[in-house]
From TrEMBL:
It comes from Apiospora kogelbergensis. The lineage of its organism: Eukaryota, Fungi, Dikarya, Ascomycota, Pezizomycotina. NCBIfam families: HAD-SF-IA-v3. GO terms for molecular function: phosphatase activity. Gene3D superfamilies: HAD superfamily/HAD-like (3.40.50.1000), Putative phosphatase, domain 2 (1.10.150.240). This is GS1-like protein.
Amino acid sequence: MVPTTPEFPAIRACIFDLDGLLIDTEDIITTAINQLLDKYERPPMTRSVRAQLMGIANSSNGDAFHDWAQLPISREQWAVESKEEFRRQFPLCAPLPGAASLLANLRRASCSAPSTATSQEDKTQIMLALASGTTAHNYALKTSTSAETQRMLDGFAPEHRVLGDDPRLPGRGRGKPAPDIYQTALRALNATLEAAPAEEEGRPILPSECLVFEDSVVGVEAGRRAGMRVVWVPHPDMAVEYRGKEQGVLAGRTGMVEAGDEAQLGEMDDGWAEMIPSLEHFDYVKYGLNVAS
């Protein structure tokens, strides 16, 4: 039996990952790591290895990487050298295709959502947040040079940026696929609503009213575990690696990293997530979003 698409509430908030989704960090990380691998006469990372590392905090110094790389130096030395290489190359980050225009459009977008004051539907502005596992230090590096990157990311209010070392995060150390960072971003958005003047204050945004944008498999699972809808925009290497397994990714059921109760996950073809090839292909109409001209 073909599953039916559920009826969803209007989208009131969009929450974005950063690396590999809005900016080209994943390719920069790959270049930096491959340069160091070459220094130690090791082969460049394969597509399969890249797919295992994308979206996972500190993955370039984790077991999966080192078991594959078989480096002739200690993990401690690798950590020092890779950190220095990232410090050199992160300022080269630039927006990915469609990222700047999508964010600009969403800042002007509205959706039809029930008003708290009347039974009529009002046009509600979309709220935006950033939820990235990158640290504040690395975020500063990635936004330090490119004026285009700075302008694009400055559109996220500082209080709506949740980074990997944000003190607002519960259970420090639980990165994606745990839902913590997306739940924290939603709390930040709702805190802004609560602080609004009484005549402007709206009801809290529900998880099902949030749309998450992600490039990584673990990020999709984090969004699903948070009870949010997800748009998956995989890197071309990731898309090839997971060809034929897309539905498992969209349901958050790859089992790539242990994260907790499976009851939090989605079901195959349940309509809560979709895959698109780039942010340029995002369909505003599908999500009931109206972009002001």
